[in-house]
DNA sequence: TGCCTAAATGAATCACGTG
DNA sequence: TCACGTGATTCATTTAGGC
């Protein structure tokens, strides 16, 4: 069997390079392909600054058909490369992930899970025309329907999650700060992924020493995390500048000693429960009247969780402050509901919801 | 124009029934199509009890091609039914959502967001071979790329989320307890959705009195929430037993009084008040001087509502932009009048006029 | 050095009505 | 259909800068 170019970055087109490697030789493939964003004009923040959007050549496609053909080509090559026990991960957004999911099902890949990366700090929607696009989607799949012997480190992920089964929604920050590669003070790559994401992916679906291939290597996050966790990597990247950047980056990474390749579970933070959730779930009906504990002030709850008091409307906190003439107010403890003649602070409903959510 | 069968459940095949309704007549479509689950054999819990999984006739398809054809058929009929300003919501899991997303993009629907419903209490993965499947995906899309005038209640959703922009990941419980319809002690429908999910969907993308169609009505969650929120519904359901179940359920629902359905109104939808009207009504006299909040710039009001600043004249917006050297400016919030030594934004006069006009 | 405030920034399919 | 004017719009973090 041909020797695999392990722990190396290969420059060139990923399809032809994958076709030149021996079939059935790779344990996992992680792919972060172009998203085909199709951005129109420039976007400004409310303060008039311009958003530094993705406008790279590698994200331009003639048409959706061209994108689908590109997707089919690299997924076909990837499928051939995988061991029968191997799995593939692809990450994307709503612009491209439905194309990719459909094509990989057509090719016979078998989806094991889709995973939602919930961004802790996403870019807001500046024009107020849509929801904040706060997540990206990963598809995790086996080579075929009958490939049952894939690696899934159930116990490790459970340990990572406070001894609860790991769910399909992962809350992780975006890549920023010191981790973000810069060239001349500007971001080196427009779509660098956080190492924590790759860390969790590899902890989920690879074993020590496994071979992980990334056909869209970019700045080499896959390689950096693979090296740190004692996995072997093969990076394929078209652009020379990224190859050199990734090479230098990975050179700086140190492999953890085997006994340290387990991390302590992240601290669970208290779930934020907006007042609207209390209304939405019917614990307080729209139209209910709220009172302060002395019944000096009364406000009415609307369908979207805002309050009305005389001619003022706003959040429980804003209206609480308003009626008191105070600069601020904790609406959760200020406002009460009348339960059979007795006043109960609305905070009890928040506690109820929190206990039902169980720390999510 | 043909009369729409509003607030009714129509029994039959959703494609032929939608084809019989007038084109361009519906504000929103919410669809929860069969998931094409492809379960192999029965699933047992660790204690050997059998999981009551989805194995209904309506969820069986001969092949992926048959599912795609079915998807294309109902989405085509749905697109025809929508008003140009209407939006479509589809919910699915990884088994079917990639097929649906690809088909709807092929048909020209324009994705606005995909939304992740994070289940607060999902079913665990009993075999420990995958991640807990803890979410489902909703795709929200407009009828076409150029349909920009869809309803999005940005301010209401912000209110619902404690004055922060609503994100694309929604944490909501599954449908259980008293909300879950039962027949002879067993769940009446295998995939009943929680009312809180529909509540948020309708709060996001419909206005009072809008017409909401659901081609896979099932137990009628869409109809129940529509009735409660003062929206009109059209339910299409193939099975007689579900039609009757939904009919009875919706009969028990009470519509919220109009004053409780009110949500924080979109600013863009408010009556446009030109600055000239402020001058015309004597709220600001011609000759008055306006200042920015730091008193760095001053402009004089003329009789027609235009401003003069040095040698430049124009609207409050143009002159505001001009003095700042900015490309654009909201003059309503930029310019202030001096009221006994304190600066007040001219927007307060607009609000005064608006309240006097009474929403005309 | 340390603390507080201001500025910068991230995979973004980001107006609309009137004439 | 097009041109133009009005006017609506941001969250979590990190980094830089002032004192």
TrEMBL record, chains A, B:
GO terms for biological process: DNA replication; methylation. GO terms for molecular function: DNA binding; N-methyltransferase activity; site-specific DNA-methyltransferase (adenine-specific) activity. Pfam families: N6_N4_Mtase, RAMA. Residues 264-356 form the RAMA domain. It catalyses: a 2'-deoxyadenosine in DNA + S-adenosyl-L-methionine = an N(6)-methyl-2'-deoxyadenosine in DNA + S-adenosyl-L-homocysteine + H(+). Keywords: DNA replication, DNA-binding, Methyltransferase, S-adenosyl-L-methionine, Transferase. It comes from the Bacteria. Gene3D superfamilies: Vaccinia Virus protein VP39. The keyword Transferase applies. PROSITE patterns: N6_MTASE. Residues 26-247 form the DNA methylase N-4/N-6 domain. GO terms for cellular component: cytoplasm. Its EC number is 2.1.1.-. Belongs to the N(4)/N(6)-methyltransferase family. PANTHER family: RNA METHYLASE-RELATED, TRNA (GUANINE(10)-N2)-METHYLTRANSFERASE HOMOLOG. This is Methyltransferase.
């Amino acid at each position: 069997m041909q020797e695999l170019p392990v722990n190396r970055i290969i420059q060139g087109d990923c399809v032809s390079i994958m076709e030149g490697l021996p079939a059935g030789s790779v344990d996992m493939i992680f792919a972060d392909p172009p998203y085909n964003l199709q951005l129109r004009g420039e976007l400004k923040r409310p303060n008039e600054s311009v958003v530094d959007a993705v406008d790279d050549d590698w994200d331009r496609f003639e048409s959706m058909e061209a994108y689908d053909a590109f997707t089919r080509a690299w997924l076909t090559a990837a499928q051939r490369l995988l061991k029968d026990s191997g799995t593939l991960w692809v990450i994307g957004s709503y612009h491209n992930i439905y194309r990719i999911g459909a094509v990989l099902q057509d090719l016979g890949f078998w989806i094991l899970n889709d995973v939602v990366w919930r961004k802790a700090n996403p870019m807001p929607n500046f024009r107020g025309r849509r929801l904040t696009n706060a997540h990206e989607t990963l598809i995790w799949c086996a080579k075929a329907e009958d490939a049952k012997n894939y690696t899934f480190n159930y116990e490790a992920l459970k340990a990572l999650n406070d001894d609860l089964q790991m769910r399909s929604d992962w809350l992780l920050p975006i890549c920023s700060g010191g981790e973000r590669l810069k060239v001349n003070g500007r971001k080196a790559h427009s779509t660098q992924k956080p190492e924590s994401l790759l860390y969790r992916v590899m902890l989920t679906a690879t074993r020590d020493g496994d071979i992980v291939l990334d056909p869209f290597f970019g700045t080499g996050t896959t390689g950096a995390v693979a090296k740190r966790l004692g996995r072997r990597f093969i990076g394929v990247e078209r652009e020379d500048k990224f190859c050199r950047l990734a090479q230098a980056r990975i050179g700086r990474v140190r492999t953890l000693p085997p006994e340290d390749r387990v991390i302590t579970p992240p601290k669970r933070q208290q779930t934020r429960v907006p007042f609207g959730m209390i209304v939405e779930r019917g614990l307080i009906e729209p139209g209910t009247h709220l009172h302060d504990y002395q019944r000096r002030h009364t406000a009415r709850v609307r369908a979207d969780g805002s309050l009305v008091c005389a001619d003022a409307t706003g959040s429980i906190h804003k209206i609480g402050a308003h009626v008191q003439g105070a600069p601020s107010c904790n609406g959760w403890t200020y406002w009460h509901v009348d339960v059979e003649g007795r006043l109960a602070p609305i905070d009890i409903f928040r506690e109820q919801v929190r206990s039902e959510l169980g720390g999510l």
